[in-house]
Amino acid sequence: MYKVSIKNDGTETVIHNPNVNNLKLASGSIRTEINKVDSFNFSFYMNNPGYGKIKPLKTLINVLNMKTGKYEFEGRVLGPSDNMDSSGLINSYFECEGELGYLHDSQQRHLEFRGTPKELLQTVLEYHNSQVEDYKHFHLGEMNVTNSTNYIYLYLSAEQGTLDIIEEKLLDKLGGELQIRKVNGVRFLDYLISIGEDKNTEIRMEKNLVSMSKDVDTTEIVTRLTPLGARIKSENENSTDASQARVTIEEVNNGLPYLDDEALIKEFGIQGGSVIWDDVTISENLKTKGLEWINKQKTAHVQYQINAIDLSLIGLAFESFERGDTFPLINPVMCINERLRVIGKTLEINSPQDTNLTIGDKFKTLNEYQSDVNKSTKKVLDLENTVGVLTERINSWKFELL
Questions:
Q1: Are residues 150 and 128 in the same domain?
Q2: Quick one: 18 and 84 in the same domain?
């Protein structure tokens, strides 16, 4: 079903072929997720033709679906580890990352940027390409993500890598999803509002649904919302308070700065939170925004972990499960009958018919939470540096006036 090959300086070595009895990986698992670098973990024994030929970060690797002619994974090997069992048999284990990881290999530059989001991504990719080998190049593909003004003014930093810049300056601010697409061997990076398609193949009990678990996250629910609008300029010219007041809703909400959802409070208790609308300057409009937000929020983020049989591999369905696609999920036992989206997929090389899917909302992992904390810390340090520079300038001006 899957052929796995490694490549060193243009020389290809097949390390797994389903049609050759003695050419198999001991294990192999591909993980794909929206806006994440794909991963492929595999292991083999010493009699594999790939033994001794893998060079960390230099060896390229791909997994070809021989039924569809599509590559399920393309990327590079990161690093090895060898394990010996009680019988003395050595098993070599390797971790690999997908091609999106090549964007980690370049640093951006200090640049004052003015232009459209599309021009920003084009600028960042071109500078990436100028620094790395040809096989790591990306060309700007389809892009339909923008903001209300189709204009961005910001600074790029030489302290950040290309992928970090794309995540912070585009994905975090504008949303959207990344997708790598190949045309005649040329790699394009698409930046779309949403990737994937609506599929009609059902995931259903007694058909292709093997097992299923449900996780519910209520940690982000807000039952008492404090809407905050634009900043209010202090009337005191000598004020040094770094925290400026914002427009609130007290004057149009019986003196209360918050909005309650009584039904949710009854269910979850008081869970306070605030949302900021920097462009709202009128209290009535701010209250309207707040009511819309609290009425639209999800009471909980729900995620399903599913083990399903991909019937397309044995000719019993036309559509396979792909990241970003939506499918009808039907499980009467768990009272589920709705169309849900695949946000992650795990594929096992040695049992291709069994597919593990993550469906529904995306939860943050511990690493992602820690990454957010690190980003916040960096922003604070950048702000402190900016304040320090401005203070020096002000003191310099004062000295010149004396």
A1: yes
A2: yes
Nearest-angstrom CA–CA distance, 259 and 250: 10
The closest alpha carbon to 132, from 166, 155, 101, belongs to 101
Same domain for 164 and 113: yes
Give the domain CATH number at 84: 2.30.300.10
Cα gap 3→15, rounded to integer Å:
8
**Global pTM?**
0.74
- Give the whole-angstrom CA distance, residue 313 versus residue 316: 8
**Residue (of 124, 76, 121, 82) closest to 101 by Cα position:** 76
Tell how far CA 59 is from the center of its chain.
25
Q: Are residues 43 and 114 in the same domain?
A: no
With a pLDDT cut of 90, the percent of the chain lying above it is 52
Closest to 229 (Cα-Cα) out of 275, 278, 284, 272? 278
Instruction: Show the tokens assigned to 69.
Output: 């002619």
Per-residue model confidence as pLDDT tens digits over 181-222: 999 999 999 999 999 999 888 888 778 888 888 777 777 788
309-346 tens-digit pLDDT = 776 665 555 567 888 999 888 888 888 888 888 889 99
Overall domain count for the chain: 5
User: What residue numbers bound the domain in which 340 lies?
Assistant: 203-216+303-360
